[in-house]
Structures are given as structure tokens and as C-alpha cells.
From TrEMBL:
The keyword Membrane applies. Residues 67-148 form the ABC transmembrane type-1 domain. Signal peptide: none annotated. This is Phosphonate ABC transporter. GO terms for cellular component: plasma membrane. Keywords: Cell membrane, Membrane, Transmembrane, Transmembrane helix, Transport. GO terms for biological process: transmembrane transport.
Length: 148
């Protein structure tokens, strides 16, 4: 019986491997990934990498300004997030919430905010309010808010 089970397991593994290879080959043809496209992409990648090295630091004031702006975004997002977290935490506590459904709704909202990656929040806020520090502040605020 053990020998039959071992041969059955080997056959199952071979079938799965065969199907994976067939799916891989089909995907290559479906996506039109051909060797000449891969070689061209390698040349483009080299061009991109050689354009990055060595980095040009012609205007260090702009780099310092951008670093300072990033720090300001982080501080503002954290500050606003903590303020709103404290308010929502009062509603999340069952003994402080006016009704138990509000407590569960706030906890569910916090769980949802934590479940969505930060990059997705940032992209959504960029679409909503445009580029600049504002979407970063809003995304960071929401991330902090989810940590109640």
C-alpha cells in the first residue's frame, strides 16, 4: 500500500510540474516575451543605470529642501494621525462609545485601514488631491490612524 501511495505522489508531482511548464510557456507566448525583447530591455536597463551613476549633486540645497519637506510631511501626518486616533479611540472603546455598534464600526474601520498597504493609500490620495506634500500627509495620517 505504501508503494502505491509513493507512486501516486510521484505521478501527481509530475503532472503538476508538467502543467506548470505548459502554463509558463503559454504565458511567454501570450505576453509576447521574445528573446529580442529581453535583449533590448537589457540595453535600456544599462542605459538607465549608467545615467544614475555617478549621481549629480549640482544643487544640494534642493536635496536638503526635499529632505526637510519629507520630514515635515512625516511630522504633520503623525501629529494629525495621533489627534484623530485619540478621538476615534474613545469611540472604539466599548465603555466610552454611545452604542456598541459604533465601537465595532470604528474597530472595523481601523482594521480596514491597516489591511490596505501604505502605497495604495498614497496613490489614492495623489489621485484625489494631486501631487505635493498633501497626499503624503493624508496617507501617513491614515496609516497612523489605523494603529489606534
Amino acid at each position: 500500500m505504501k508503494k502505491f501511495q509513493d507512486s501516486k505522489d510521484k505521478m501527481t508531482k509530475r503532472i503538476i510540474l508538467f502543467l506548470a511548464i505548459v502554463l509558463f510557456v503559454y504565458s511567454i507566448f501570450q505576453l509576447e516575451i521574445m528573446p529580442d525583447r529581453i535583449l533590448k530591455s537589457w540595453e535600456r536597463s544599462q542605459h538607465l543605470l549608467f545615467g544614475m551613476i555617478p549621481p549629480t549633486l549640482d544643487e544640494p540645497i534642493d536635496i536638503a529642501g526635499a529632505a526637510l519637506e519629507s520630514l515635515q510631511v512625516a511630522v504633520m501626518g503623525t501629529l494629525f494621525g495621533v489627534i484623530f486616533s485619540v478621538i476615534l479611540a474613545c469611540f472604539a472603546a466599548r465603555n466610552l462609545a454611545p452604542h456598541w455598534t459604533i465601537s465595532y464600526a470604528v474597530k472595523g474601520f481601523a482594521a480596514f485601514v491597516r489591511a490596505v498597504p501604505a502605497l495604495i493609500w498614497a496613490i489614492l490620495f495623489i489621485i484625489a488631491v494631486g501631487l505635493g506634500p498633501t497626499p503624503g500627509i493624508l496617507a501617513w495620517q491614515l496609516i497612523v490612524l489605523g494603529c489606534l
